[in-house]
Each structure stands twice: as C-alpha cells, then as structure tokens.
C-alpha cells in the first residue's frame, strides 16, 4: 500500500556548538579587554557596517579586520570575525578563509554563547561547502551531542543529510533529513511554531517523487494571515527520492508578496499548501495543508548605551538601558509596547537567613537530605527591596523594545533607586514561545559607583587600486565556483568556459598583484592554482602551488597547496612523492588537514599494495593498516576516523581474525555513523559471523544491509545470502 503523504515544517535557528581544537597545546586565552576598549571596538565595527550599507564591501572588510588588530582583548573582535566569516562564506565563497574567522570566534574566550554557537555551526558549513564532508560530519555530530535540545540540531542533521547526498549515500541522507522536524500526517491537527526572523524548513514526504524527472522541483505555497504569500520550491533528495526539502527566511515586517522572504507579525499564522498528485486512497490533486504559528522567544537584557553589550555593572547616576526582544508583541505597523518589571535586591544578613531557615524547617517546607546537604544552600541569599513596573517601546528594529531609565541613589518610591552592591533584575513574562509553557525571562547586573568614560575612533582607508584588484579576484573566485558546479553535474563544456573566464581575469591582474604584493598576491596564487587544478592542467597547478610555498612559507594556504600537489602526484600514480607530501601535511602542527594527510597516506600504501607483486603486497598492506591506525590514534578529531577504522576492520577480515574484526565493526557502527563503506562493513560483519557459525546473527546483518543501503552494489549479493540462510532454517 502506498504510504500516506505528509507535510513537515520546522523553524531554524542559526547558532551552533563546540568545535574540536586542533591537537596540541591549547593557546593561552587573551586577557579580557576593558569596557572602554569594547566601546571603541564597537564604534569601529559600526563604521564597517556603514560601509556595507553604502556598498563599499572591501573597505568594510578592511575596517572589520582593523577591529581584530587594534583590540585583540575586546569581546567585540569576535563580532568582527563573524562579519568577516559571513562575507567570505556567503559573498566571496572563500570557504577556507571564512572558516578561520569562524574558528577564531568559536574559542572559549568568547563570552557570548549565542555568537559562539553560530561560529561553530558555520565552521561546519565551511567544511561542507569546501567538500570536506568527513570533517563537516564530525562537527555536526558534535552539535547534536553538545546541544541535544536546541534547534541547532536540525541544522546539523540538514547538513549531514546534504553531505551524504553529495557522496551518493542516499539512505543515510534520507535518514538524516528525516530528523529535520517531526513527521505529521495530513489529518494531524497539531500546529507547530516558527520563531519570527528565523528560517522555516518545509519537508514533504511523497512516494510519487520517485518517478519525477531529474531536476524537477516541488512547488509549495506559503501564506500568512497578514497577507504575505510566497512560493517555495523544494528539491527531491537522493536517487528514487520520496522526500523533498526546502527552506525560506522569515522576517518581522509588512507583507511584500513574492519577494522570497516570508514577512510575518507577532501572533501570525503561516498556512502551507501542497497539492498531492495521487494519494493512497486513489484521490487526485488533493491539497495538504499545514498551519504554523509565528512566535518569538523572548530575551531580556540590561545593556550599555548602544544596546550592543550586556552591562556587567550599572553606574549610579547614569541611565539604565533595558531591552526585551520578542516578536509576539510586534502586532501593528506602529511602535508597539511591552510591559515588564524592574526589581532591586540586597543581600540578606546572616540573621535573616537563620530566621528564614528556622521558619521553613519548622513548617516542614525544608528537610535535611540523606546526603547531609547544607540547608542554607536552599535559601535565596537575595531579598527584594522594591519593584517598579516599566513599559518598553518598540524600535525601528522590529520586535525589539527598549527603555532608558535613570538609576538614582536612595530609596524613593516610584522611581528606580538603589545603592552600591545591590542587584538589579529585569523580569519579563514570555507567555508565547517555542515551548508549551510561560517562561520568565530575566537579566541581572550589580550597582556600582563610578564613570565609564568616552572614546574616539579613527577611520581606516584602503587604496582604490587595491579595491579594484580585490574585486576582480572575487569575480575570478565566483566564476571558478560556477565552473565547479557545472563540472559536478557533468556539464564539462560549460565548466571549461567558466574556468577560462576566471583564468583570463586572474592573468590580467597578476602583474598588478605582483606590484601590490602581500595578501593580494598570495590570494592570486591560490586562485590561479585552484583554476589550473580544476582545468586538469596539473603541471601549471603544481608550479603555482610551489611558487606560493616559496614566496609565502607562512601562508594559511600552505597545507591546502601541499594537499593539491599530493593529489596531483597520486593521480599520476607517483605514490612515493604523494606519500611524502601527505606525510608532511600530517606533521604540520596546526593544520586542520593533518588527519586528511594521514588518511591519504594510508590510501596510497593500499593502492600500491593492490598493484604490487604477491611477495611485496603483504608488507605494503601492513604499512597501510598502520597508517590507518594512526588516523584513529593521533587524529581523533579528523573527519576521516570512521573511514580509517572501517579500513582497519577490512584488514582484520582478510587475515581471518574474525573476532577482532567484529569488535572493530561494532566500534564503527556505534561511534561513526557517517563513515564511508558502512554497507561493506555490514557485509563483512555478516561474513565474520557466518565464519564463526553465528548464522542467525549473520542473517540479521545482511538484512540490515539490504534495508539500510538498498542502492549498494553488494545489496543483491546480501539478498542471495539471506535467501540461502532462510532455506537452511536460519
């Protein structure tokens, strides 16, 4: 029977988790910068933002880079790293350089967990875009593990699914993408939620997608109660797919139909419509409709005067700046209001704590635990001395409500007053959010006496000639990327045309880049070698990467240049030279490609063993095994660990060490769900169990292979074995 078609949706948040550091000694965290430094850095950061608004992108990048150089202790430098990373990732497609900025913003010294998470997510996205799916899988799996209840998990599964799709692992792609949201049937009346300003994912499950022509896209209509209407196109995933996946950004704003963004309001609803060509009940062109509520997750903050940085201390005599962000209350085109409370607390005295403890013990409210817990730890050390209601007004930034209120010394009624050492708490009841319950959002700071001072910021300029050359270099990079996409889809003639255009642009600016020198010349060399390698002009690619190594020995692209050289030598079957280069990469102390170098070293030894005479192959296979083992032991954060362990297991099977092979198989299946060759692992696992006369268990492994990897070349062989075992009574 045909499975019932379902429509699935999911809100998406763009923030993410812990990224594993490169092996070796961790860098000493920089000392925390002062508030004055943060203010200066913030103004410089905003100067870069202003350049972006004027379309002066390259000048903006220079200004953001100067934030990092001038204020190496300020927390604002992490925001500069994120802006640079976003531009390099989304605009110029320079994934390697973008990743370096995201990694810098993902360190423990970044005190803003939300921005740190965003940096981790985008680190993984950079690896995905660069085609390093193994490393992408590793980071995204860390996201799922480190943040199991966060919405970032959905984004992680999304990229895991796309990565497996790129690798033609269709079953694993679908398995991951099916976890992006919750499956609902057409009759399910459950209304899900999307947070305004975040991406909305739409996933459609329809068995009819398997018969669609390649390249066919599924049309979905999204309509809001506020009047916006957008068409969303979902792409079928995998070969013989039954799942189509798409996403659309949402924004708090007036409805502007058919502009590619879903404009929403607080309390809005989005109606999603999909027309099913055929249904399980033999119906035709039936509509599937799903409704999603628009909500806002409230955030309460006490900030500095720019509303950019949380305030570590509030100064008596200065205004207190309050901010609440909640899309639920942006319900009109005008400036809406939101209600909250400001509370002042002082610390309880020792006598007050003892009196409260005695009363609560006497009433039976507090009882001593079995572990002898100190009952005083259950007493709140703060006592509220006053509370005043406040009304915050919406700003031009939709869903953001602010208020500046004077903080005075004393204890007068009706105004905000306090004394040094007391605590201020902003309290806001968030009645509508992504959870089912009301959540009390709070923000706190301490009251102090003092003056935070003022700052000045200077402007950063770059030459028009350098700007022109950088713009042309970005054009060459974009043309190369387009060529890569054409090549991926087998459109080689169109790919060559784009590579030729990119090469012409690079060759025109090469002479001027030599005159300017520095980073510009380095980036020109990198772009040229990438173009040559894409065009299969291996000698020219080698020559350019060697020039880069010679003239820029400390370049951040050195490891990538060496890797490309090694790939060229391996392609030519010059394995000793390739092994030398791969091994050198594995020895670079801080390169993220160290694990790649070690893994490819092992693959070279294995390739040599397969071509060698019988009397030499055993020794080469042993070298390959030891090289794979080093990936597992020395580069545990590498995206190649699962593949390396899978290879080790295959060697054990060849040696007929079946018990040891089974141990490794179990390790791969439980700890490395994204490893390549999992179909081969299951096949050999079944064969080992068969050899050990554990035939019922062997049949289960072969059946798992058939179910999980029906597209595998060895699935048919596994099916024959299962049928034979059935006939034999196992």
Short description:
The chain is built from 22 helices and 19 strands. It folds into five domains: 1-11 and 184-295, Immunoglobulin-like (Sandwich); 17-146, Alpha Horseshoe (Serine Threonine Protein Phosphatase 5, Tetratricopeptide repeat), CATH 1.25.40; 299-362 and 377-448, Immunoglobulin-like (Sandwich), CATH 2.60.40; 465-535, no CATH class; 536-727, Tetratricopeptide repeat domain (Serine Threonine Protein Phosphatase 5, Tetratricopeptide repeat, Alpha Horseshoe), CATH 1.25.40. It has 730 residues and is of the alpha+beta class.
3D architecture notes:
By secondary structure, this protein is α+β, with helices and mostly antiparallel strands. It folds into five domains: 1-11 and 184-295, Immunoglobulin-like (Sandwich); 17-146, Serine Threonine Protein Phosphatase 5, Tetratricopeptide repeat; 299-362 and 377-448, Sandwich (Immunoglobulin-like), CATH 2.60.40; 465-535, no CATH class; 536-727, Tetratricopeptide repeat domain (Serine Threonine Protein Phosphatase 5, Tetratricopeptide repeat, Alpha Horseshoe), CATH 1.25.40.10. It contains 22 helices and 19 strands. The strands form three sheets. Strands 1, 2, 3, 4, 5, 6, 7, 8 and 9 form a nine-stranded mixed sheet that branches. An eight-stranded mixed sheet has the order 10-12-15-14-13-18-19-11, with no helix packed on it. A hairpin with a 4-residue loop joins strand 4 (218-224) and strand 5. The model is unreliable at 1-31, 182-191, 278-282 and 452-462 (pLDDT under 50).
């Amino acid at each position: 029977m045909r499975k019932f078609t379902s429509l699935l949706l999911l809100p998406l948040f763009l923030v993410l988790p812990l990224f594993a550091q490169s092996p070796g000694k961790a860098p000493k965290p920089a000392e925390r910068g002062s508030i004055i430094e943060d203010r200066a850095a913030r103004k410089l950061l905003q100067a870069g933002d202003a350049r972006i608004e004027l379309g002066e992108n390259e000048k903006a990048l220079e200004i953001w880079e100067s934030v990092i150089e001038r204020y190496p202790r300020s927390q604002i430098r992490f925001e500069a790293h994120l802006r640079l990373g976003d531009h390099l990732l989304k605009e110029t497609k320079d994934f390697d350089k973008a990743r370096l900025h995201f990694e810098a913003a993902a360190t423990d010294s970044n005190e803003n967990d939300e921005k740190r998470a965003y940096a981790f997510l985008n680190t993984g996205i950079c690896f995905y875009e660069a085609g390093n799916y193994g490393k992408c899988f590793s980071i995204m799996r860390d996201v799922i593990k480190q943040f199991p209840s966060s919405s970032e998990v959905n984004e992680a599964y999304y990229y895991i699914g796309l990565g497996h799709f790129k690798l033609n692992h269709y079953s694993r792609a679908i398995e991951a993408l099916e976890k992006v949201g919750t499956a609902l049937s057409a009759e399910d009346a459950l209304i899900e939620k999307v947070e305004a300003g975040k991406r909305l994912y739409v996933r459609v499950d329809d068995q009819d997608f398997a018969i669609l022509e390649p390249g066919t896209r599924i049309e979905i209509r999204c309509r809001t109660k506020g009047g916006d209407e957008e068409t969303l196109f979902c792409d079928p995933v995998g070969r013989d797919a039954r799942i189509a996946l798409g996403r659309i950004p949402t924004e708090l704003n007036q409805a502007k139909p058919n502009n590619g963004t879903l404009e929403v309001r607080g309390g809005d609803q989005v109606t999603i419509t999909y027309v099913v060509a055929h249904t399980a009940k033999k119906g035709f062109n039936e509509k599937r409709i799903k409704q999603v509520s628009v909500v806002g997750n409230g955030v309460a903050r006490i900030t500095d005067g720019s509303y950019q940085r949380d305030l570590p201390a509030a100064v008596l005599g200065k205004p207190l700046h309050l901010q609440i962000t909640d899309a639920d209350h942006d319900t009109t085109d005008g400036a809406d209001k939101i209600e909250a409370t400001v509370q002042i607390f002082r610390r309880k005295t020792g006598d007050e704590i003892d009196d409260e403890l005695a009363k609560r013990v006497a009433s039976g409210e507090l009882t001593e635990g079995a572990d002898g817990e100190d009952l005083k730890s259950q007493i709140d050390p703060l006592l509220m001395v006053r509370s005043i209601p406040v009304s915050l007004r919406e700003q031009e930034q939709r869903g953001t409500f602010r208020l500046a209120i004077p903080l005075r010394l004393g204890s007068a009624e009706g105004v905000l007053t306090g004394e040094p050492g007391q605590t201020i708490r902003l309290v806001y009841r968030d009645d509508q959010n992504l959870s089912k319950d009301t959540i009390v959002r709070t923000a706190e700071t301490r009251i102090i006496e003092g003056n935070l001072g003022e700052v000045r910021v200077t402007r950063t300029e770059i030459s028009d000639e350098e700007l022109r050359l950088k713009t042309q270099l970005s054009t060459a990079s974009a043309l190369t990327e387009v060529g890569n996409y054409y090549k991926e889809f087998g459109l080689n003639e169109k790919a060559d045309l784009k590579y030729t255009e990119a090469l012409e642009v690079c060759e025109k600016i090469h002479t001027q880049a030599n005159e300017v020198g520095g980073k510009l010349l380095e980036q020109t060399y990198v772009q040229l070698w990438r173009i040559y390698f894409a065009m299969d002009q291996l000698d020219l690619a080698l020559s350019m990467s060697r020039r880069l190594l010679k003239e820029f020995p400390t370049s951040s692209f050195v490891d990538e240049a060496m890797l490309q050289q090694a790939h060229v030598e391996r392609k030519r079957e010059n394995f000793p030279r390739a092994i030398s280069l791969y091994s050198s990469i594995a020895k670079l102390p801080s390169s993220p490609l160290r694990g790649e170098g070690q893994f490819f070293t092992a693959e070279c030894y294995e390739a040599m063993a397969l071509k060698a005479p019988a009397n030499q192959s055993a020794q080469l296979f042993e070298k390959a095994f030891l090289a794979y083992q080093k990936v597992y032991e020395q580069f545990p954060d590498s995206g190649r660990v699962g593949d390396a362990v899978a290879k080790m297991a295959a060697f054990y099977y060849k040696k007929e060490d079946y018990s040891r092979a089974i141990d490794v198989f179990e390790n791969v299946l439980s700890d490395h769900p994204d490893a390549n060759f999992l179909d081969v692992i299951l096949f050999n696992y079944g064969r080992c169990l068969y050899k050990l006369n554990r035939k019922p268990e062997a049949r289960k492994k072969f059946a798992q292979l058939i179910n999980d990897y029906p597209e595998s070349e060895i699935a048919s062989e596994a099916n024959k074995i299962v049928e034979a075992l059935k006939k034999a009574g196992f």
